[in-house]
Amino acid sequence: MRSSRSKTQQAQATEQKATIAYPPNCKEINEELSTDDLIRRLKDISMAFQQLSQDDDNSQYIPLALSLSNDFYLEHSSRDVKLLVACSIADVFRVYAPNAPYQNEELVKKIFRFFIDQLHGLKDPKHPTFKRYFYLLENLAWVKSFNICIELDDSQSIFCELFSLIFSIVNENHSEKVKNFMIDMLTPLILESDATSPELMEIIFTQLIEPKKTQSKNACALAKEVIKKSIKTLGPYLINYLATAVTSEINPNGEDVLESNSNSHKGLGNNQGANYFKKNISGVCDLIYELNKVIPETLQEFLPQLEYKIKSNEENERCAFTKLLARLFSDKESTLSKSYPELWKCFLGRFKDISATVRMRCVQYSMHFLVNHPEMKSDITEQMKQRQHDQDENVRHEVVMAIISAARKGMDNINEELLEFVKERTLDKKFKIRREALYGLAQLYRQYSLGIKPEGASATTDDGLNAIKQLSWIKNKCLHNYYQTGLEDKLLVERIVHTCLIPCSLPLEERVKVLYTFYVTIDAHAARAFNEMLRQQQIVRRQVCDILEVMKEPSGAAKDDNLKKKVQICARSLLEPVKTEEYIMKLVQNLENNITLREHLELIVSSANQTSHDEDGTFIPPPSNAAIEQSAREILRSLGYPVQTNSFYVIIKNLMERVAPIMIDHEGILMLFNFVSDSLLGDGELDSKLGITNSAKRGLELILSFANVFPTLFHGKEPYNSYLLPFLWLEHSNHKIAELVLQILTSIGTKPFSKPGRDESSLPFWAQPSDVIPRIINSCILTASSPKQAKYAIQCLNAVVTNEHEKDKIFGQILDSIKEAGLTLEGSHFRTHLVALGMIATCGGQNKYPAVLKSIINKFVVQGLIMKDTRSDIEIKAQERSEASLPSENFDFEQSLDRCSEEVKCKIEGIKLIVRWAQGLKLNYLTMPDKLDLQEKYVKTAQATLRICSAIIQNGGDLNEKELAGTTLEKAHLRLAAANAMIRIAANDNITAEKAPRRDCVDGESGESKNDNPNPKRAPAGISTLFTPSHLHVLATALIDPQEFVRERFSVKLHKKLISLELGLDFLAIFSLGGYFSSELPFYKKLQTYLLNNLTKRRELVKTNSAYLQHLHPDCTLPFVIHLLAHMPFYTRYDDVGQLEVVKECLWFIMEPMVFKNENYSYTFLKKTFESIKTCIDKTTAPEDDGPLSADAQIVNYKIYCACDLAIGLLSSKTQNYAAKESPIRPQLHSKYYTRSKMLVENNIKSYLPPPMQFPPPKRCGSETENTSKNVKRRRGG
């Protein structure tokens, strides 16, 4: 069978050979020829076919054309043979067009697939044979040879292969001519076809989207051109295709389909590949977006259909199509929002979508709307206003990022309201959002206010310039965040200051200008935060210095233990202290082995040490900023690669940022002095250049900040001879300048002048001239322009004069001069003399001149001033009328104090003098504990002062109760001064060197007395021994004073002492009175913040300081709260519902953070505390002989029991978890406040609340029900 067929084929071939005609000069070709001969003869044939014309009769070459389509040639192993055959056959199609000699359909398919295979050679234009491949392409494109396939049944499959091939080979090396021929070859296949298959469209469309869009940009451009040129025919199919794809179901694995289909053009011809866009929702959205850029007119009718997709029930669909519309609407040249207003409104509705992902997508594209479409700013602002309060933190984060990104591209892109949104987010509860908001604002300040612009930032218009002027608040806002309690916030602010507000990358001269301008234009709160930042950084430097000092000790177990403690302390100054401790120990090991690195670190932290001197005693000036920066770089270079994955590098880099003082050096200090001098003594030229006015005072405040932290930078004679002393002698013309200079000199003291073996009797060089000290005494103390000037002058002399004999002599002269001047209200400097006396008392005068000071205080201050009213009723009423005429808004405390009479001002200073005298006695007693009479003197003085201050507060500021103390405001100032004095006495009383155990606690359960632990030095403050409960009750009324400024300033003073642990938990109870005010008032929220900060600090200390639980544990405050409320003026009847409502609010004000914001909340402990109180009576009203209680005492006890019932009811109604949780302490009641009563053992069962105030029994949770049932079973079993 096979042999007969073979013979037949051979016969046909022989017959064909006999009839084949060849062009002139062309030789016969057959299968027996060698490859080289065959190539030579095919070249001749190809050249001959190229020269043939359609006008000639070429029918004799048809047999030759048919023979070239033989499988032998089409499947030849030689690339050149196939190329020459392809070129020849292409010419055959050209010559015989439109009737090609190939009539067999299968043969035609085979030939065109052969062409497609040969077009692969176009890929490399640098190949020697590229010209022939180009000729083939040119021929096929010019003749439109592939159009023959249109009539074939399998035409779309061939076209898919052709399109896939062309898109895969086109590249940047191809000339425009080659690309144009490709387009000319492909476009007719769409234009002249009856239909375009989905598979072919997908091949084209996949070039427009990722990953092909990026991976093959030339193919993408080619596809766009094909679409543009064939859109008339392709349009209907395209719209139908998109509609089908959009309405199809989502395939979450669509990306896998794309990957499998993109590997081979053949795969796209099957049905599975045709479904890619129908199953990949993100792909079809990307396609619509790209097509809208290529053929926007065609999609005009299609786009409105997307409204239904962004309302889909499927979150993935809504998210994808919302993103698509956001891209379409936000493009720079887009006008779709005007063309489709309904679709635009529908899109804006997605900002309120139930899905956080959809809302986040909308917010993310808001930046593009703001940048590209100013007309949409109002719509976007309205949506962002709502989203900045979104419950999802990621949405809020994106709001901040979008606004900041738009602003960085140009201030014209945003408005003041959008910037206000970012400002509000700087107080977000999530640090991630606070960080982005604060850092973003700082970058705007750096970019626009400092003129350090990033690449790509656009020019700013006039409106933008006006907005830039309004960015001055940013620096204040950034520094205000330093008041946040979290360490991460403080570290963020420090980094912002060094990178954006005062960029340390600037040259020194430019940096100092920025620093000076920055400080003199920030507000007072920001300035305090800046000063605190410098102080905290100095503390960390000292901690590192301590580590370096321990490293110098001899090796051994003691050194290792000490080193570990020092490292633990230092590690707490950074985030993740456990990991930080590990890497600091690793750094210590590196320093042990590398002396050079240790020297670099010692140089960096040298500002934390005292003055350095060499062996000869010569002063070694502190290093410059450049030297410190270089040392920091050397240390960081030794830590490995500077990448985020290198935790060792990142943590030590954060440590270097805190300890490296690269903001200022000695040269910078001189520059600051020069700015101040120009403003104060010169013509203000430098001020005008910097755009500021009258900057001298704020400039000196900045220098004072550096003097407190870096006193050694003030070495040399120039700072004193050229600046400080000339400024000081202006004391009468500008007393505030003199006050600042005195503070600077006090802070510097003798540090830049001290050296080993220095004679203690010597003064700093600037104070050695014979007229300097006397001039300070005369001008700044005896005839001082202000009380503060006298205060700072005494402090300055105390710091500068180190010889005790010389100091006693100077202070003695001052005392004599004051006595000679006369301590009466008629004296022109009476008030400043009172201040000077008080400061001398705190600087050792109470030890050197006890009799003189005591006599002055008793005779002139207490009897002759505080307890004496000299003005008449007419004078007071006249001043009252004058005060009433002043506007009540924009109240200024300092101005209000200045308007007070001289008598009231002197009384205030007299109160301060007594407190300072008591403080001096306390210090005297502590330094000489063997003299018991000193303690007795101190106690008597402090108690007398407390009695006077209590009387002032109780009598409304009128100590003598004769209505001659002053006006309403004056009496308010006296009440404030008395309250502050009481706080200071209580704080001073807790300064202790060593305290013996005392029996002053009553166990809340057993009723037995219990000893406190001894308080060592700097222990947290316990319950004040001087303060009686009555003193505390009187003091607490200052927080509900009728004058707002009294409440405000008293709360600040109280918070300051509590947060520094100078006051005990009895004073913390005063904050419970915050519930007396409306929750809408700013003062209410301020007290809430104070309370929460104090509770948080004490909770943190409890974790690491178990020795003082009773003094620290916030839950131990509640017994004092109950006692305090029972003695408040607003709580007089225990059965009055209105009064009980106020008490309830006060209780919940302090209990809420204990119940809801306390990870160690113990319902059992608090409940037992209140039940224990109900078994006691008030100690302050209890009879001494255990006799029957008076009627007033009984009412007080009933008020206490009602308050306890309210507290227990609040606990039961508000608690969400009744699970029994052990408390580290037992309920204890202080014996100064409560005493046990044998008659009240069962009193904790009875309720004293009137019926309207009774609490319904709480619904038991599962855990409580389970515990209750277990207890019942136990009792039954017993």
Helix content: 55-70%
Number of helices: 62
State the CATH topology of one domain: Leucine-rich Repeat Variant
Secondary structure: number of strands = 7
Distance between the termini: 109 Å
Biggest pleated sheet? 3 strands, antiparallel
Q: Provide the CATH architecture of one domain.
A: Alpha Horseshoe
* Rg from Cα: 45 Å
Widest beta sheet: strand line-up: 4-3-6
Q: Please identify the structural class as seen in this structure.
A: mainly alpha
CATH class type of one domain: Mainly Alpha
Low-confidence stretches: 1-16, 250-274, 994-1018, 1261-1278
- On the 0 to 100 scale, the average pLDDT is 83
Shape: elongated
- Tell me the name of the CATH homologous superfamily of one domain: Leucine-rich Repeat Variant
Structure description:
The chain is mainly alpha-helical and 1278 residues long. Among the domains are: 295-454 and 461-501, Alpha Horseshoe (Leucine-rich Repeat Variant), CATH 1.25.10.10; 521-709, no CATH class; 716-751 and 767-821, no CATH class; 854-869 and 897-992 and 1023-1063; 1097-1266, no CATH class. The protein is built from 62 helices and seven strands. It has a three-stranded antiparallel β-sheet with strand order 4-3-6. A hairpin with a 5-residue loop joins strand 1 (612-613) and strand 2. It is elongated. Residues 1-16, 250-274, 994-1018 and 1261-1278 have low confidence and may be disordered.
